């Protein structure tokens, strides 16, 4: 079974409280989502392999360690996942970015896919799949399946807020994919929204309804 990493760093939790607030406008919401994503990227990349090297400083030669040539990819689930990409790239600017288009049918709550564009060497990369909300788990499960069908073998799912139902679905469908989240909320309501959640992340990011 995959591991759920609950990120309770004070800065993450403080900023999460701000984006939950219904009075937070789109600009501040976007900025905060990017900031939280940067903080989460720090933890998600903790296990990247290192190799020894030497660096010439202004004084002498220092023994140092650098990332061991590992390729990283950030894959956003459209459209809300776009809000997390910039924050991730602040720490890993060389990462390639992919996009998967999935929306949730409002009647069935089932995922419907409509777009997929990934780096050609996706199978050689450590992939960070980003989507602010893990609600029913349908979209995340579908996105992970897309990645695996295209050769991906190392995937981490990074979300801001999750529901127990979504975590359960991802773990049952993809037990090899760890989940990183800033909060595990109470449940889903009858419309498939996370309670208490933060509303529709996409609408709040882009000022739509």
What would you say this structure looks like, in words?
The protein is built from 6 helices and 12 strands. It is α/β, with parallel strands linked by helices and 209 residues long. The strands form 3 sheets. Strands 1, 4, 5, 6, 7, 8, 9 and 10 form an 8-stranded mixed beta sheet that branches. The longest helix is centred in the first third of the chain and has 19 residues.
Provide a short characterization of the protein structure:
This protein is an alpha/beta fold.
For the structure shown, list the relevant keywords:
single chain, alpha/beta, eight-stranded mixed sheet
Overall SS class: alpha/beta
How is the biggest beta sheet arranged?
Answer: 8 strands, mixed
| C-alpha termini separation | 37 Å
- Estimated helix fraction: 25-40%
Number of helices: 6
Strand content: 25-35%
Poorly predicted runs: none
Secondary structure tally: strands? 12
Report Rg: 18 Å
The chain-level mean pLDDT equals 93
What would you call the shape? Answer: globular
N-to-C SSE series? EHHEEEHEEEEHEHEEEH
Fold blueprint:
Layout: E1 4-6, H1 10-20, H2 26-44, E2 50-56, E3 61-67, E4 72-78, H3 82-91, E5 96-104, E6 111-117, E7 126-130, E8 133-134, H4 138-149, E9 154-162, H5 164-173, E10 178-184, E11 187-188, E12 194-195, H6 201-206
Parallel strand pairs: 1-10, 4-5, 4-7, 7-9, 8-9, 9-10
Antiparallel strand pairs: 2-3, 5-6, 11-12
Helix pairs in contact: 1-2, 2-3
